[in-house]
Amino acid sequence: MLASAQKSVPELIRLLSKKDYFAADALSKISSKTLISELIKMLASDDKETRQFAVHFLGVRLKSRMVLPAMLKLLNNEKSLIRLSAVKVIKKLDDKKARPGLMKLLNDPDEFVRAYAVITLGRFGVKQVTPLIKPLLSNKDDEVRCDAITAITKTGARLYIPNLIKALEDSDKWVRWVAIMALTDFGVKEIIPRLIKFLAVNEDRITKTAALDALAKLGARESIPAMIKLLDDEYVAVDAVNALAELDAQEAVPGIIKLLASPDWRSPREECVVALKKLGAKKTEVPVLIKMLDNPNVRIRRDAIAGLGLLRAKEAIPVLKAHLYDADRMVCLLTIASLFELRVEIPQQAIDDIKPFAKELLEEMIPTAKWDYWKRTKMALIFLDVIKTTKRKFKFKC
């Protein structure tokens, strides 16, 4: 087994050079040391995407204690690009043991290395670098401005709130997004009128999404009418639904019900179900979901079944049982999962019929164009819970 795995290392390294996450994951299970060595080589690449891949994997996905020592060593590398990449990895690791090494970089000859040393120390809550963050808010690089705003939030430097408000007008949508989030964390309610304007004008999706989330967190009920209008906007409807539920906007129930029953496959039905439940409208939405079970569109039937399970709607049990042997395998799996949520005994035949499909989803995690693979996998996992608990709860032979 080990010999076979070792033989695959050269092939995995080849795939790794193409920014293949699956290859990186596989290689990490064979040799973290080899993977780190290859990723360090990628940190020096002239290609920005290659560097970003290496930074992300080292800083976020590779859970190894060997990463930080390797990055601290790279802080002394003669190449500024490698030092910069190492600092970015440390920023993602969020390990304060790197503080002494980063402090030495505050006088680095490269402006970006200095900038990210300041930003990372700021994210660690090192208040003495706070004055050094302010100039970075007007840096020509969009990424630097974004990260500088995040650092301000971490240091709690409220004296820069006017600068953050100014950043709401930044030309970059991600800078606006981070500024909105930072001001929300500081609880700055003076920005509410500006955020409502973001909803009304033809702003980009990122800014609107950030504004919706911020308005909900700030408790801005005066924004409810503008939010209700966005239920017709296919790009931000899901965010509007979540924000309205957060604000307990009872006046939005009819609009969310309409969205729930929409024949458009892009309708955020799952979010509508959750929102209506929060708004105490279960009695209104359950009949809508039951009616949706007769829809010829299989995706709508799937969403309706999942929603009824989420609501634990006991009145839907008879109609749910009718879908245990549906022609669509996913409908069958979702029905079993929903009935399991309702603590209903599931026929052994239904379990045996769907078991191969559930295992296939778990083992292969097959993505399709019209159904998110993570939802499929989630349902398959729920189904495995059925298999594990049926012996104990329902005394089935699985």
Question: What's the short story on this structure?
Answer:
The chain contains 25 helices and no strands. By secondary structure, it is mostly helical. Helix 19 runs parallel beside helix 21.
Structural write-up:
It is built from 25 helices and no strands. It has helices at residues 2-7, 9-16, 21-30, 32-43, 48-61, 67-74, 80-93, 99-103, 111-123, 130-133, 142-155, 161-167, 173-185, 192-200, 205-217, 224-229, 237-246, 253-260, 269-278, 282-292, 298-311, 317-321, 329-341, 348-364, 373-394. 67% of the residues lie in helices and 0% in strands. It is flat, with a radius of gyration of 26 Å. By secondary structure, the protein is an all-alpha fold. Mean pLDDT is 85; it is low at 1-7, 366-371 and 390-398. Helix 3 crosses helix 4 (32-43) and helix 14 crosses helix 15.
Tell me the strand percentage band: under 5%
Structural class: mainly alpha
Distance between the termini: 31 Å
Provide the helix percentage.
Answer: 55-70%
* Rg over CA atoms: 26 Å
Order of helices and strands: HHHHHHHHHHHHHHHHHHHHHHHHH
Mean pLDDT: 85
Strand and helix layout:
Elements: H1 2-7, H2 9-16, H3 21-30, H4 32-43, H5 48-61, H6 67-74, H7 80-93, H8 99-103, H9 111-123, H10 130-133, H11 142-155, H12 161-167, H13 173-185, H14 192-200, H15 205-217, H16 224-229, H17 237-246, H18 253-260, H19 269-278, H20 282-292, H21 298-311, H22 317-321, H23 329-341, H24 348-364, H25 373-394
Helix pairs in contact: 2-3, 3-4, 4-5, 5-7, 6-7, 7-9, 9-11, 11-13, 12-13, 13-15, 14-15, 15-17, 17-19, 18-19, 19-21, 20-21, 21-23, 23-24, 23-25, 24-25
